[in-house]
Amino acid sequence: FFLLFGFYLLRKKYFLIFGFIALMIPFITFARGMSIGVIMSLLLFFGLRKGGKLFFLVIITTIIFGTVKLLESDNILIKTATNVDVKTGEGFSNRYLLWSQGLEIIAKSPILGHGFSTSTYLYGKYFSGHMAHNILIHTTIELGIIGLALYLWMISFILNNRYRLYRRTRNDYFLLQFCLFAGIFISDMSGQELYF
Question: What would the pLDDT profile of 7-16 be if each residue is shown by its tens digit?
């Protein structure tokens, strides 16, 4: 996304080429959570940006058309990656199981948590998993409800600060920061990119 923004600022074609390739990686590797984060970042950026409504419509149309075409294909990898049942958790790579295990770990020390970098150890000790695949559960395991509240306050502070700076200055750099951070936070509902 930063590379595409570099193209926008400097009009260098290599920024556009490398940026587009980098944005495609989550889609090519079927990283669904990160793909949703990228899509949300783009939608936020072009939806909120003054004069970005046309790009917003182009992105929405491309996403819809691309999704329909992918679902129509006979590729077994695509069918496997898009076979998701929200009721049973099928297709979520055992996320429901990992999340319920995470809640069991949280119950052992809900207020203050178990300490930094203990999540992987605790998953190995009590279960066969290795991480929560959800930043909110992960944070609560390690820092408890108090730490989760501080974490959410920090996220909201950063998002509010970047968005207010954009609204005041109309500088796309602040909007880009807001959109990237929001997109990563959204993708963290099924991963832990902000943690590492």
Answer: 555 566 666 6
